[in-house]
């Protein structure tokens, strides 16, 4: 279920609590949030950080019995504020838990087109059209940079942002 944030309700980017964060490099870490199943996300988070249920409960600010009911699927969380709280405590962007905003649809389109923009900019640069390459890359970098600032730090966004920044640097006369 995808939840849409209500006007006035903001979900900030994931913050580190007690040094715990989502590790995108761990095998399976990219697939688990895509399913947006809270039970799987919590179980995977505990697995990669070696957290017992009590530590997870402490991290989330809930009782162990409440966390147990969430983990088993006996209790679901539908309140957007509570989902934002979970995302913040787990170091995840709210969109990983199904919270969307109006710009998420646009962002998905940008992600789908980004590889083509990167290729087009590289072709333009190699053809001596650095200005065209910059004109293609600058909006992509600006968009992806804004999304990461808003907490959308999924691996696709970060990978594309890095590639776009390198391409922009090269087009502006830097070296690889």
Detailed description of the structure:
It contains eight helices and two strands; from the N terminus they run E-H-H-H-H-H-E-H-H-H. The chain has helices spanning 31-35, 38-49, 53-60, 64-72, 80-90, 104-126, 130-149, 155-171; strands at 3-4, 99-100. Strands 1-2 form a two-stranded parallel sheet. Helix 6 runs parallel beside helix 8 and helix 7 runs antiparallel to helix 8 (155-171).
Short description:
The protein is an all-alpha fold.
Give the beta-strand count.
2
How would you name the oligomeric state of the polypeptide chains in this document?
single chain
The Cα radius of gyration reads 19 Å
Roughly what fraction of the amino acids lie in strands? under 5%
Which stretches are poorly predicted, pLDDT < 50 over at least 5 residues? 1-19
Largest sheet: 2 strands, parallel
Bin the helical content: 55-70%
Number of helices: 8
Shape label = elongated
**Order of strands side by side in the largest beta sheet?**
1-2
- Span between termini: 43 Å
On the 0 to 100 scale, the average pLDDT is 78
Task: Write the H/E string, N to C.
Answer: EHHHHHEHHH
| Structural class designation | mainly alpha
């Amino acid at each position: 279920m995808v939840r849409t944030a209500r006007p006035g309700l903001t979900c900030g980017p994931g913050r580190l609590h007690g040094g715990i964060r989502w590790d995108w490099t761990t095998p399976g870490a990219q697939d688990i949030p895509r399913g947006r199943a809270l039970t799987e996300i919590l179980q995977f988070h505990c697995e990669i950080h070696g957290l017992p249920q009590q530590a997870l409960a402490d991290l989330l600010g809930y009782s162990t019995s409440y966390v147990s009911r969430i983990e088993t699927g006996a209790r679901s969380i539908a309140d957007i504020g509570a989902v934002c709280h979970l995302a913040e405590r787990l170091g995840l962007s709210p969109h990983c838990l199904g919270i969307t905003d109006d710009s998420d649809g646009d962002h998905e389109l940008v992600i789908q087109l980004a590889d083509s923009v990167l290729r087009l900019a590289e072709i333009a640069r190699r053809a001596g059209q650095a200005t065209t390459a910059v004109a293609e890359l600058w909006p992509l970098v600006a968009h992806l940079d804004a999304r990461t600032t808003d907490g959308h730090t999924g691996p696709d966004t970060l990978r594309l942002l890095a590639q776009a920044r390198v391409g922009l640097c090269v087009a502006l006369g830097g070296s690889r």
